[in-house]
Design a protein that fits this description.
33% of the residues lie in helices and 17% in strands.
Length: 492
């Protein structure tokens, strides 16, 4: 438990690959603001998401529970409003938790414990609610080949909503500073949710030009994954078998530009915090909900357990409490980040939470830690890009080993020390069968894929009614940023 309750500034981006950051070793991308944050605090080099897709990852971050516990697996799932979150815990501890921007919750509860919320998401609040159009970039924001074909210099509305999120965040910081001048010393809790660098892979032409000609094609070829794998089906389903090298380079170039763009927005927030003197006794956290494969192994977006998809950047700064310029290589998860925020704010521990606070580890690299974590990816087959397929899959990372379980499909086992690129699947190696048995037992303990399959299929019947209701009643979206089709364009 922290001795002093800090202010808490939590910045969460969407789909930021952990390795496309200067402080994580990339020599091309320009991320001076996040790099400076890392130099003033601690970065985690083995941080994982609870799920390599938006909604369950974000809801797990709120609840501190893995998806199977909160029964929120897919982007069409609602998190039950009676599950307490980090925001509830901070509110119970005397904070006034505020969210500006993206949360990506589905359903009537668009607060989940926050006292106030500004700007909101670009999507409807409701499953089956009023859709949005990105004009010429429609489908490019989802896992379809259009996201690679329709990429390059231009403008997409996700960048515009992020600018609004920054603008409102700066206003919120001004309001907090004014309150401090009036004598209110209550610590603040401010969550800032950004969309970038999520596809469409379309970036400001000026920033795009900085990277043009500097970004190479993907480094890793398609691995020998065997017959009948889920990943082979996924490539076919999403059109990834029909992508040119030119498309890949153009999309990767835009992604680098989008990472610089989000760094610029984050820099504005950090500068305002310092300008107002609010950085003192403030725990600053930067993370993303999942990564992006960016063409490695002929895969894009997220939706797999390869490192580029399932690992996230995680940086923590708390001057005077957390050391500066250090790295932690222990295996951690976003569910641990949930416990960390509650710990720092001295809030009540969340019941049934799976994570443990990262503060002792951030403070002392020799603190006791379990080098084991999980991620899961289960689909309900309802979204357009899913091909109607219902899948149950789960990953365990235990020390140097990673086991990827695909129900009714071939599995994967990787030794990440000997094979950090995950090109050599050891699942059938005779010398690794003891490891396979041990990790399979871990995967299936408390996690029953047949029960999950039954639950998801049962809930699909409920979702059919909810979708028909939303399309018939057309309920109002209380928290939604207006997306305009004409705001999206590509340089021809």
């Amino acid at each position: 438990m922290a001795a002093t309750r800090p202010n808490i500034l939590f910045i969460l981006s969407d789909q930021h690959a952990f390795n496309i950051l200067g402080c994580y070793g990339d020599q091309i991308v320009r991320t001076p603001n996040m790099d400076r944050l890392a130099s003033q605090g601690v970065r985690f080099s083995n941080a994982y998401t609870a799920s390599p897709i938006c909604v369950p990852a974000r809801m797990s971050l709120l609840t501190g529970q893995y998806p199977y516990k909160q029964q929120c697996w897919a982007n069409s799932d609602s998190l039950a409003s009676d599950i307490p979150t980090t925001a509830h815990a901070l509110g119970a501890a005397g904070y006034h938790p505020i969210l500006v921007g993206r949360m990506h919750a589905i359903g009537p509860d668009q607060i989940h414990g926050f006292a106030e919320r500004d700007i909101g998401d670009h999507i409807t609040d409701w499953y089956g609610g009023t859709p949005y159009s990105m004009g010429v970039l429609d489908k490019a924001q989802r896992p379809f080949r259009e996201s690679l074909v329709n990429s390059g210099p231009g403008q997409m509305s996700y960048e515009l909503v992020d600018r609004e999120v920054t603008r409102r965040t700066l206003e919120r910081l001004d309001e907090i500073a004014a309150s401090r001048q009036s004598g209110d010393e209550t610590p603040f809790s401010l969550n800032v949710g950004y969309m970038l660098p999520h596809q469409p892979y379309v970036a400001d032409p000026e920033i795009y030009a900085r990277y043009e000609g500097k970004i190479a094609p993907p480094r890793l070829p398609r691995a020998d994954e065997g017959e009948g794998t889920y990943l082979a089906w996924w490539r076919q389903q999403t059109g990834l078998n029909d992508i040119s090298v030119e498309d890949e380079i153009r999309a990767r170039t835009a992604y680098y530009a989008l990472v610089e763009t989000i760094d610029i927005e984050i820099g504005k927030v950090l500068s305002k915090l310092e300008e107002l003197g609010l950085d003192e006794n403030t725990l600053i956290i930067y993370a993303s909900d999942h990564g992006d494969q960016l063409g490695e192994r002929d895969l894009w977006w997220k939706q797999t357990f390869y490192e580029e998809s399932v690992k996230v950047p995680l940086i923590m700064k708390w001057t005077g409490h957390i050391p500066e310029g250090e790295c932690r290589s222990q295996v951690v998860n976003l569910v641990d980040l949930s416990a960390t925020i509650v710990d720092a704010g001295q809030g009540p521990q969340l019941p049934n939470a799976d994570g443990q606070s990262l503060l002792p580890l951030a403070i002392d690299e020799d603190a006791d830690w379990h080098n084991e974590t999980y991620s899961e990816y289960c689909t309900d087959g309802l979204l357009a890009w899913s091909g109607g397929r219902v899948l149950q899959s789960r990953m365990v990372r235990c020390g140097k080993w990673k086991f990827n379980y695909y129900h009714n499909c071939p599995h994967q086992l990787f030794d990440l020390e000997a094979d950090p690129d995950e090109m050599d699947n050891l699942i059938d190696d005779p010398d690794c069968q003891d490891v396979v048995a041990e990790l399979l037992e871990k995967i299936l303990t408390g996690w029953n894929p047949d029960e999950i399959d039954s639950t998801i299929k049962s809930r699909n019947g409920e979702k059919a009614i909810l979708k028909a209701w939303a399309q018939g009643v057309k309920p109002a979206d209380k928290y939604r940023w207006e997306t305009k089709a004409e705001d999206n364009w590509l340089v021809k």
